[in-house]
């Protein structure tokens, strides 16, 4: 009798406990639509990829802690089916994923991490934080006046209706490429040196519907829901329309524009089920800023090769990060590689000199220790001097277009040992491949188990998904 009693008591306790846990979970799963003064959050050590803190009314976008590289943290606005976040608090910094890091709202949205010396704030005096259904994160007053918005601080992505002004830059996630507005054009730039940029794509305003007027202020760019990037100076009549694939086709869904790590600018359309590729600024691989790496050639139709035939594609020249940035000073010895059938990429955006001979053109590069190479067009007499480390050059059929390149010595020395070590390296490579394969197989089965576990328990707290998967494959395919 007694044991029955205590049994039923304990089962009742158990029931109560289960109920308690369940109701807790329901609460935890409910989307938070606004943050008010006094809000505070810390990263949860059990979260693998994304810890949501706030969502928009449609449930498509979340603000939360995004885990980077295992132990770093960024405050980000994400979409569950997009690999990269739509917005991050600061693309150049991250906090640590530790209990020392906290996010709070006291009128300003503040993230602070004394251990990484990260302190970031919206510097506002608002009453609430919300996300709009277009992913714009806002700090607002009760009067609804907007004190701060994430749309004013884009990262690598521009969202439909977001105003991109000449004071802003879109920067690719690897920090290598940027998009900016000129007086009458959209430009893409590659970082080639500490302090110089290569201009590699330009879209000038056609000014068909409206003209750009001097003294009427800078232009701005905005993605129009009707499927184009519009450039505007005054009002809503565009000075230029750069069409997406969905231009003038009735589609519903959100459009975004993203500067990607390969330097291309791509547009995507969220149609409610997946992000479809909808625009690509650069269609040809060889028109990308650096598709084959340093000291390489990209030849339309046949792909990548090395400027120096003796080297191997993929590692044409090992750019040593410790080596000086130019050929000035006595440590900077180099050998010369000459080759026909070469052009500088984006030559229409590059300065040139006119010389009467190839020798004269080369001589200018020989004399300047800042020069990495010279490319001469025998037909036009144009001489292009490259004053940053050689990246991907353009391969052309015309052999009278000749390139002269300085290649740092030391690379040659390494090569002379190649014959000796090639057998040993081959063995090492085979061993490595085997090892990687084993680890991969183990990791796959481990992560699959783990995922199943998480899905079953609902432990995975966020909708954020790391994608290389399903929905994105279709995008990748259509890219080819
Ligand atoms: C993550 O790791 C990669 C390579 O290890 C590094 O380049 C990158 O800067 C790291 N990112 C952060 C936010 O620490
Ligand atoms: C909010 O907190 C930050 C950081 O602690 C502080 O600098 C700021 O003055 C606070 N703002 C208000 C309105 O209390
Ligand atoms: C987003 O919100 C606006 C009003 O703020 C509404 O007109 C629009 O239909 C909403 N869009 C979606 C996709 O829910
Ligand atoms: C963008 O700028 C236009 C005027 O130039 C303005 O009407 C519109 O509200 C702005 N959009 C946003 C999202 O701020
Ligand atoms: C997401 O956005 C689409 C349109 O962009 C909208 O139809 C849908 O209702 C939104 N919400 C969810 C939860 O998908
Ligand atoms: C590399 O090979 C191509 C064709 O195979 C030849 O035209 C070129 O002169 C060679 N270049 C060098 C630097 O050896
Ligand atoms: C360059 O042009 C000159 C005369 O125009 C010609 O004599 C010479 O052979 C050309 N060189 C090459 C490499 O085509
Ligand atoms: C988008 O993400 C959500 C949440 O992770 C997932 O349920 C859905 O299947 C994804 N959609 C596609 C098309 O991958």
Molecular structure report:
With 480 residues, the chain is an alpha+beta fold. It is globular. The protein contains five helices and 34 strands. It binds 2-acetamido-2-deoxy-beta-D-glucopyranose (8 copies). The site of one 2-acetamido-2-deoxy-beta-D-glucopyranose has 4 residues, from loops.
Number of separate helices: 5
Full CATH superfamily name of the largest domain: Bulb-type lectin domain
Structural class, by secondary structure, is alpha+beta
CATH fold label of the largest domain? Agglutinin, subunit A
| Helix content estimate | 10-25%
Topology:
Elements: H1 2-29, E1 35-36, E2 40-41, E3 50-55, E4 62-68, E5 72-78, E6 87-88, E7 95-96, E8 102-105, E9 109-113, E10 118-121, E11 128-131, E12 137-140, E13 146-149, E14 157-159, E15 164-165, E16 170-171, E17 177-181, E18 185-191, E19 197-204, E20 220-224, E21 228-232, E22 240-243, E23 254-259, E24 265-270, E25 275-280, E26 296-299, E27 303-306, E28 334-340, E29 342-343, E30 353-354, H2 358-367, E31 373-377, E32 382-386, E33 392-395, E34 401-408, H3 411-416, H4 418-457, H5 470-479
Signal peptide: 1-28
Membrane topology: Single-pass membrane protein
Domain Apple: 328-409
